[in-house]
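Lab notebook page, bench 4
Experiment: in silico fold of construct C2
Operator: M.H.
Input chain length: 332 residues
Purpose: comparison with the prior construct
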Amino acid sequence: MNNFQSPNMNVQEELLQQKIDSYLTDENISAFATESLGVKTRCNGYSILTGGCWNRVIAVSTDDGKKHLVFKVTLKKYDADLRREFEVLQYFRNCTSMPVPEPFLLDLTGDRIPGSVLVMEKLPGTVLHKASQKLSSEERKTISEEIADHIINLHSCRVKGFGGVEVPAEQRLATWADFWIPRFDAAIIEAQGKSIDAKLLSEIGEIRHHLHYLLDIGEYGTLTHYDIWTGNVMVDFAAGRPFVSGFLDISGYYADYARELSSMFSLADQHLMEVYGQRHGFDSSFEARFNTYSLKMCIQMACMYPTEPEHIENICRYLRRIQLYLDNQLED
């Protein structure tokens, strides 16, 4: 069995240990593996893949070492978020070329383990933010180009409407603004009374009045992963060279492709953006929308880390860029 210990557990971690861990027995894990793979399977022990901020995520191998699985366990029975994750993975496996884990089983009943359980394939390799230390500068460029290619292939798929990939076409939102502005508003509400002063919030509020204009990208949404960063990209060295073996934690929305790129942090470096621009291209208002999405992200970061002044500095930088864009557009 695993020997996981955390001397500084948060409340969620304590709940996971109290309510979940004692049920992660070899018998229960083996039963889920058998149901997932369709053959009698025996597993011995597991290792924890995350620190338990929200869910318990464990890695499991079969006795013969031929199959490697990931179990994601939540505290809630009939967990709607875990159901959606299963459906999104199915969609990406069936409808895209992006390498993602195969979902094997979803159990929402809580019969064996209290809560909900998703069993999926364990992708080979390690996450990019850990693997990057082993990469040369040329290998980093190659990985960046592979990521860009995967994203471009994904972004070639466009449909009418906006929203989750699992949502029927007739239930998608008609405009991108309808989808994204409520998320921006929620970030502003969260920021009130926190580290962002009232004057700066007032300036952000002025930008809010122009969001329908800024986010007018037509009626077609682009298929996006929606949460690509170095912790969600797997890199494997098994082929004698590093390569992208898959993408994790797919949110899966028909959205604005600029929103995808804005949330990639250091991954969207100059080289990746150049490759993307050459092979996919950017529309005329891309930069303004990119700055708008980055502004929201910085507002959230300022709330999460109120003692770190760089987040306020970043808010001001993106805000000035958006204001300059709007001033130029209104003059025209």
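Observations: The first strand starts at residue 47 and ends at 48. The chain is about 45% helix and 15% strand.
Next step: discuss at group meeting.
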